[in-house]
Amino acid sequence: MRHRLSIAAAIATAVAAGGAAHAETVITQWDQFAQSGITAAGPAMDELIATCKPALGGATVLRTIAPSIGIRESYRLAVSAGKTPDLAYTWPAASVLAGYARIGALAPLDAYYAQYGWPQVNEFYKGRNSYGGEIFAVPMEQDLMGVYYNRDLFNEKGLAVPTTYEEFLALAETLKDEGIVPVSFGNRDRWPATNTFSLILGLTAGLEAEQDVFFGDTPWTNPAFRAAAENFQDWAERGLFPRGFNGIGYDEANALFLSGRAAMTITGTWVLQDMIRGAEFDLGVFMLPPMADGVPSGTMWGEGSQWQLSATASDDVKDAAAAYLDCLLSDASREVWVTKGHTVTIGTTPEELSAWGADPVVQEFFGAGLATAGTNFYDLHTTLPESVTQVLYPELQRLVGGDATADEFLEAMQAAWQAAIDNGERWIP
Question: What pTM was estimated for this model as a whole?
Answer without folding.
Answer: 0.89
